[in-house]
Design brief:
The structure is a homodimer of 136-residue chains. Chain A has helices spanning 14-24, 64-72, 86-95; strands at 3-10, 28-35, 40-46, 52-58, 75-82, 106-107, 113-117, 127-131. Chain A is an alpha+beta fold and 136 residues long. The first copy, chain A, has an 8-stranded mixed sheet with strand order 2-3-4-1-5-8-7-6.
Chain lengths: 136, 136
């Protein structure tokens, strides 16, 4: 069965947003990663039940998250769905006529396989398909 | 501990979006409700792990979701966080200086108590605090 894996939030100010989600709302701060090839700083915020929040701050303006902030401002950036087999899920999306950003799964953070579906064909929602290292 | 309860998606076309999330992505269609006082049609889509998707379609243009669609187009509308005590969580948000939409908890769907925090003070994210009938 499909699970919500995480919700990605874009912000220009990772630390202030992290403080809100930990001190005020009660999330637990997790791993922080800098991904230079994607131009983004990432901070994971853990909740109960396995659905988490991923904070994203751009390293430079000319990066995917930088351009998102320029266009939309801070806010919800993507919805990540955990699937048993990302290649299979991607194939179903292709057959349904969705526009894919990734034609094949690629390596995500923490040993995951990921692929993105374009918001244009998914009612404005950037969908990330995620397969964890251990399947489900 | 806090949990992601659901992600609310706004659309003008509930059925097409529901088909995408059920037939293609593997969510299970749940309850459908019309809430005339909020001007919205709701369809619940269930995933594993207790974090679900709520589809929202406006009954008329001049409604909260109708105005959201007019301004932003279809997409992610709100992030709902399940808390043990919504009055307490709301008080923490108030003390942290967040702008509240609801000054006190109000009745949500299915016997829940809910309150919304304004996106202006939460980095562009409309946050719903949800307390289920049975606490956690």
């Amino acid at each position: 069965m499909i699970h919500i894996d995480h919700v990605g939030l874009a912000t220009a100010d990772l630390q202030t947003l992290a403080d809100l989600y930990t001190s005020v709302l009660g999330f637990r701060a997790g791993e922080r990663e800098t991904l230079p090839e994607q131009g983004v700083d990432v901070l994971w915020l853990h909740a109960g039940g396995g659905a988490n929040v991923e904070l994203l701050a751009p390293l430079e303006a000319d990066s995917p998250v930088g351009r998102f902030l320029e266009k939309h401002g801070a806010g919800m950036h993507h919805l990540a769905l955990r699937v048993p087999d990302v290649a299979q899920a991607l194939q179903r999306c292709r057959q349904a006529g969705l526009e894919l950003i990734d034609q094949a799964p690629r390596r995500g953070s923490g040993g995951t396989l990921v692929a993105f579906v374009h918001p244009k064909s998914a009612h404005g929602v950037l969908i990330e398909l995620v397969q964890t290292a251990h399947g489900e």
